[in-house]
Every structure is written in structure tokens, then in C-alpha cells.
Amino acid sequence: MTAENDFKCLIRRHMAQSGLSYQAARRSLLAQHSEESHVSTEPSNYGPNAIAGRDSTAPSLVDIRRRPDQFIVDTGPAGIEHLCLEVVGNSVDEFNAGHATNVAIAIGDDGSIFVRDDGRGIPVDPPNGSTRSALEIVFLEPGAGAKRAGDYYAFPAGANGLGVSVVTALSSRLRVWVERNGTRYEAEFSSTDDEVGRVVQHVREAGGAGLGRTTAVHFWPDPAIFGEATVDLEHLADRLALLAAVSDGLVITLSTPGNGPRVVGSPGEMGHLLHASSTTTRRMTRAEGTALVALARSEGESQVARSFVNGIETVGGDHVAAALASAPRACTMVVSVWVKRPRFERVDRGYVVHNKAARDLVTAAMAVPETKAS
User: What confidence score (pLDDT) does residue 349 get?
Assistant: First the structure.
């Protein structure tokens, strides 16, 4: 299970399509992402002081461990998928900030899950006023991270703020590797009912870097929490493909036992969610966010088939209302927006989102010329 090989597979695929060298193909993918898909407002000094410590209102690791059903979907296959998506969500944040293009996920024969991206790598030095590594803060302090320290992640994925520490609390073992500034670092944590979030290995240098910049997380969902449950591979593949589609530019690969990496989500696929023979897209990117709308002609009144905010599927909200109000003709639409600080309101059927920027972005997107999607 080598995520490095997953990434090389992606780059070589681009080499075959473009005729570029390995390094040129990798740079091309990054350039396409930053120039065509996103406007990055990310500060360049993404260092340890970008990591804020634990939110004082957040539950502790012990709380999460004792009552997992309050913090993840369940303690079955869907709960393990939830843990995977928590880690993937950090990679999506790097993508949305303009610093990553690919995410590789590998499922081990032992049920462990490995996630690696080509982003900048989590900072490893201690923030000012702390003796603990920034990386350890991220994995051991619920609610900690760059999302609380400023606009380091303007459009964060997800609807809650506990972050990857949930994975630490509910995994018997978790290893993490970071490559930054030409150096590779590693750390390891473990959790049991008696000792949650034990540091097995503090952050240390671990030899030369491979890809030069990355974060890789390998975790083992704890049988004490999940019993004999294993992740539903097809459902996970579908969820990852959906996440890539609504992210508009992110490439995701998945490796499963006995199978090499396969691309489960790649740019330009949101229109496929409409299951129509021909679709078009409209998009708008501004400092306040990004909106992407896929459309297909239909009979009768216009409708929004599916909608998403920051990667979370919604059942309504300002973005949906804007799409319907601006529909150019009878059509069916899929709407995806990424905005700062959306307000997710939980209702019986899912989430409704209230956000003026989401409404304005969709309205602006609907006013631009259509481009053929499929």
C-alpha cells in the first residue's frame, strides 16, 4: 500500500495525455488547479503559528471515545467511512486553498485506511507559546487547527469543527507522515479505553523526502469501537467520486485490497450527476468563494436535483433559491458552492444553508455563458 505510487500513477496518466515530462506534468496539474479552478486567499506563511490549539468548548478525546455515536454517524461501516472522510476533508481544504491537486486513499487488507495528498504538509514545529508540535496539536486537541487561527482555510470542508482528532480517539493506532521544506517527519499515536491519544512517537525527522510536500495519515479503526465492521468500499468510492465532482478540479484515487489505484473522481464530472445525455456548466469564482452549476434541459418547471455547500449535501438554502430564480429555461440542475463560514441548519431531511455569498455567487454563475460539460 504505497500512496507515493498512487500519485505517480496520476502524474504518469497526465504525462501520457499531455506528452510532458514527469516534473512538468506534476507542475502542470498544480498550475491548472490554481489558475483555472480557484482564487487562493491563503497566506504564504503556513507555519506552526497557523495552528490554533483546542477549542475550549469542544469535547475532549475521552468524551469522543466514550460516546462515539455523538460525533460520528455510527459505529458500523458508515462510522469508519466517516473517519476516512474526516482525513480526506483536510486534503480538500488544501485543495480549496490552492495548494493540492490529488488525494490518494488506500484500504489495507487489515482494514486500515491510508490517505495522502500533495498539499503543503501540516506544520511540525511548536506554535509560539507551546512546547507541543503543531502536528500533535492537530491530532490530539479537538477543534484545533488552521481553521481557527485565521483565513488559512477560507472555504473549509465539513459541517462540524472537531477535525481529525476524532480519528485519533477512535483508532487503535494512527501514524502520520509530513514532508515539508525537503524533510520528512513522522509521528504515531494510539488510543484505548484506558489511555486515549497516547503519543507513541513524538514528531521526529525520518529521512529524505519523497514527493517533497505531502501529508499522509494511516489509521486503524479500533475493533473495541467498531467490532468486526469494515468500510463499505463501493459506498466509499461513490462518496469520494461525489466529493471530487463538486470540488471541480480535485482528482481522487482509491486502492482496495487486491486492486491497484483507480481514479474514482476527477475534474469535469459534476454534470454526470444529472444522468443526462448532454449537460452544460456555469461557474463563478471570486474572493468570497466559488459556485458551479451543472444544467440539463428538462420538461416542466426548473428544479435543483442535488445541491452542496463546502462538500456537504444540502436539501435547500440560499444557493438553491438563487439557482431556481435565475434558471434560464426549464432545466434540472446540480449546484455546488464553496464559501466562508456557511451556516448549516439541520432539518429532518438534511441541511439547509443560509449564506448571502452563496446566493450571490450562484446568481452570478447563472448569468455567465454556458460551457459544454458532457
Answer: 79
